[in-house]
Write a structure and sequence with these properties.
alpha/beta, TIM Barrel, Alpha-Beta Plaits, 2 domains, 9-stranded mixed beta sheet, two-stranded antiparallel sheet, 12 helices, globular
Length: 343
């Protein structure tokens, strides 16, 4: 592999002022491409390892400039809107360049590790004593050399660094990145291997094996380790799953985990799936109620872990009743954190 390949990566997005991806205010760099394909994924645009084009309906003025600009003739007018032939589109970006209203967007951009570090350093004044940069995805370990180079440049500038990983990766990828990370955010989604494969596309044996290694690494070097579990109705939101993950943490990670965060289901990504012409099996699921998140937190606290490490975050459903109308109304209660980053 050449040096250019090692230090160049495909970046999906740079999100500033995040409070969802580690301690303090952080700049989160989302990489493109994931080793899992979680059926509830909040960032479906991050799964593919290739650039993709999306059409944003609300910006479109129906000028059809993009249709004329596409060299692959991959865009057609369907009457109600535009359709992109994904098998023909190679994300060349011609439609994006020609669109006068930015209704066509390309997802994914090449960055060099050094130039990316220069970009996030602009946010240094917001980090304070506890914030920093988090590299997420997608899955950062799938671009291990780039991730390591980027975090190395950040640490050299005194910026706190965090790796956010699903753990479905090789040991060598972790060995490449961990020396440049000040903390690790690690997803444990589903304890049952069969259900894990059903919901994510892969069993969880490698993930569980890798977190044992990561926990030992973090303990030896006094590096922070957070575990995050997405609580998904119809999937991971089960007492036996939460209790099973807690039992695993207690039996295998030996007090290394500083925080276990239960992340409530977020259904605000429906349009992302539509823009990518993807179906979403959770499109009609409602937010969980606060009482349910409190329930799962209690299950977690009784699972064998130190109860003080258990927290939950995310949007929940607030159920209202009036004397005139006994039907339930659904409203979003932010409760501190507005979005979910557990993929």
């Amino acid at each position: 592999m050449t040096e250019a390949k090692k230090t160049t990566g495909l970046v999906l997005n740079i999100q500033r002022m995040s409070t969802d991806d580690g301690p303090g205010l952080r700049t989160t760099v989302f990489l493109k491409g994931c080793s899992l394909a979680c059926s509830w994924c909040h960032n479906p645009e991050s799964i593919s390892f290739h650039k993709e084009v999306q059409w944003i309906e609300t910006r479109c003025i129906n000028c059809k400039t993009c249709i004329a600009a596409c060299p692959k003739q991959a865009i057609t007018d369907t009457g109600p809107g535009l359709s992109i032939d994904r098998s023909a589109c190679d994300a060349c970006g011609e439609c994006v360049s020609e669109c006068p209203t930015c209704a066509m967007e390309i997802l994914g951009a090449e960055w060099g590790a050094l130039s990316l570090a220069d970009e996030v350093e602009k946010d240094r004044s917001f980090f304070g004593e506890t914030g920093g940069v988090t590299v997420s995805g997608g899955e950062p370990t799938a671009q291990a050399d780039f991730t390591a180079a980027f975090l190395m440049h950040c640490r050299a500038r005194g910026i706190h660094t965090a790796l956010d990983t699903c753990g479905q990766c090789s040991r060598s990828a972790l060995e490449t990145i961990l020396p440049h990370a000040d903390m690790v955010l690690y997803d444990l989604k589903e304890i049952d291997p069969g259900l894990h494969k059903r919901f994510t596309g892969a069993a969880n044996d490698k993930i569980l094996e890798n977190i044992r290694y990561v926990a030992g690494y973090c303990a030896d070097r006094n590096i922070g380790l957070w575990v995050r579990t997405p609580v998904i109705p119809g999937a991971t939101a089960r007492d036996e799953n939460i209790a099973g993950i807690g039992a695993f943490i207690s039996a295998n990670l030996h007090g290394t985990v500083q925080r276990w965060e239960l992340c409530s289901f977020n259904n605000l990504c429906r349009d992302k799936y539509r823009r990518l012409d993807l179906g979403w099996e959770f499109a009609h699921e409602q937010l969980l109620g606060r009482d349910m998140m409190e329930h799962y937190a209690e299950v977690a606290k009784k699972s064998g872990v130190d109860p003080l490490i258990v927290h939950w975050s995310g949007a929940t459903r607030m159920e209202l009743k009036t004397a005139e109308n006994d039907e339930q109304s659904e409203k979003i209660s932010s409760l501190g954190r507005e979005t979910m980053r557990c993929n």
